[in-house]
Amino acid sequence: MSKFFKNLMRKKTLNNTNYDEVNYTDMEGSPVYGALPVDSYLVGGYDSEPIKDIRLVFEGENKDTFVLVPGLLPYDTIEIGGIIIADYWGDVKEQVEDPCITSPSPFGSLHDRAVELYYQIKGGQVDYGLVHSHQFCHKQLGETYEGLVPNWSPENPIVLIGKGYGATTALYLQHLLSTNFFGQHTAGKMIKGIICWSAPHRGSTLPYYLGLEPGSRCLVHPFSILQLLLSLIHLICYFTFLEKLFNFGLNDKFGLAPKSEGGEQSLGSALSARSRFSCFGDNFLADWSVEGARMRYAGDEKDKHYLDPHCIYLNYVSTGRTWKSKITGHYWPRLSWRNIPTWFISIMLGRYKLATDAERQVLRTSSSTYWQNDGTLSVHAQLPPPHQHVLMNIALDQRLYDPVEHEITPGVWYNLYVNDPSQTVLFNSVPSFITLSFIDYIINWSFTSHFINSLSRHSESFESFYIRFIEFCERSFRFSSKKSHINYDDNVSFSDSSAKSYFPTTTSERTDKFTSDKAGLEWIHKIETMEILTSPSKMLYWMNQMQSTLDNGSPLSETGKKNDFSFSSTTSLMQGPMFIKAKRRLTADDYKASVMNCDGS
């Protein structure tokens, strides 16, 4: 225990040290965090070559190398008796052939995970950096890897696909590459593309609900779920046979093994979760929280993450899994949501409110901003950091519009709001446990199949009853409790008349609808046009639709005049591209010419 307090005092001394004055002559060969200015292309550029639109290549001789980065609590595949019942990357593997699957520490900090990710891809012994390892009092060197892509270089870039915490890990890796942290003349353009699914760009409020003290970044309430989780992690690391099974990757770095096996931990410290890992802030809690995320876009200049002009960025925001109560403004999971564990987490996130002082200092906005969620993460938290440019927002309601299969502009975010994962190319299904053979047999019974079909036909009625029941309970609780004891959203109206007017409703009506912005609508129009020009049958279909509309009379515009020259893909008459002036019968050449003029302007 005395060694623990010595390390704690050592950390305080290092925190007060001005690293600009540190003599690095003794650190030759060791990575130095912040060795070069962040993204040096901003002040001089990596090169002078023009930047063009980029397309990801999924097959063929020149296909891109895809590297998969998991998030918190990951798993690869779960098998029972040789049968795969769960696959974390099952959806991505359907589109990506032979991807490289990495396994950074599931509970490590973004810095440690990004460093481990680099050496797992490139090969070599993990080196967390001398300054970083001294600051957080853990070993500088880690495991040695052969390398999944040994020839990784700016001339041979890779594509990173990350889910949740793995997406922010991928972005942090690019940040380290752009600062030449590894001392091997690295650059941000070593990554061709970063694809994020439900990424906590702006942090999550879930750690605060589970027990993290707001404003501390590492202090956990002693009687909380988070304290229980940390104790469980320490106990698994204490019993080495369990650590080999779960492979948390914390024993050698933080000395969480028992003293009899060369570690620093006793059974008492394991039960209380007192260690350098839990107390020094170099763990998942610090970077998963809202405060840790803010350091990546509102902290020191050397810590800010900038987008590389040679890399494409796709951000899939998971939406549509919750509905908003008109009584309290809280968000509740949809009845049709089948993921039961995250169902309960969604209820917590949909109503959690920090104290006023914590809101002002930590969130810097109302707690209700973080209420809408996808089960594990707020929708607001999935938005890219405010200092990074978003080129367009696309409501992804058709797989055709997914930019992953088209040429896209590098150096900016494509923000994709996904209500149904089946409309995406890579994440077309939520990973779940596959039913076993006897379950399939039961489902195929005639009685069971009829019951399931009946449920699906009356799902809207069940959801309507579900909403009415929840709001009835909220209304009853509101009238039976003192108003001062209930934290309601300030922007919610509580009039009974307004609540009654929403009685005949469904969850689809209560779900917030995300729409494409102007740039997103132009993108959709462009993709539709390209699809039609490359398909004669579709071109003939839309021309027939156009001609029948002209023969029956042009629709009226908002001003009351006949609009005989254009109507867009959002009209109810035809879900297709915009058409230019036409008072006569159109031909294929006329349509192609009009589209070329549109694109040229």
Please summarize what this structure is.
This is 8828_t:CDS:1. It comes from Dentiscutata erythropus. This protein is an alpha/beta fold.
Description:
Keywords: Hydrolase, Lipid metabolism, Secreted, Signal. The chain has 601 residues and is of the alpha/beta class. Among the domains are: 321-353 and 366-378 and 446-516, no CATH class; 518-600, no CATH class. It is 36% helix and 10% strand. It has 23 helices and 13 strands. The strands form 4 sheets. It has a 7-stranded parallel beta sheet. The chain has a two-stranded antiparallel sheet with strand order 2-3. It has a two-stranded antiparallel ribbon with strand order 5-6. The longest helix has 22 residues, at 459-480.
Observed structural traits:
about 600 residues, alpha/beta, seven-stranded parallel beta sheet, two-stranded antiparallel sheet, 23 helices, 13 strands, about 35% helix, about 10% strand, signal
Layout of secondary structure:
Blueprint: H1 2-15, E1 65-69, E2 77-80, E3 83-87, H2 90-93, E4 100-101, H3 110-122, E5 124-127, H4 130-135, E6 141-145, E7 158-163, H5 165-178, E8 191-197, H6 206-210, H7 225-238, H8 240-246, H9 251-254, H10 267-272, H11 276-279, H12 284-288, H13 290-298, E9 312-318, E10 322-324, E11 331-333, H14 340-349, H15 356-363, E12 390-395, E13 413-418, H16 437-443, H17 446-457, H18 459-480, H19 496-500, H20 507-510, H21 518-533, H22 536-551, H23 588-600
Helix pairs in contact: 3-5
Protein name: 8828_t:CDS:1
GO cellular component, one term: extracellular region
GO molecular function, one term: hydrolase activity
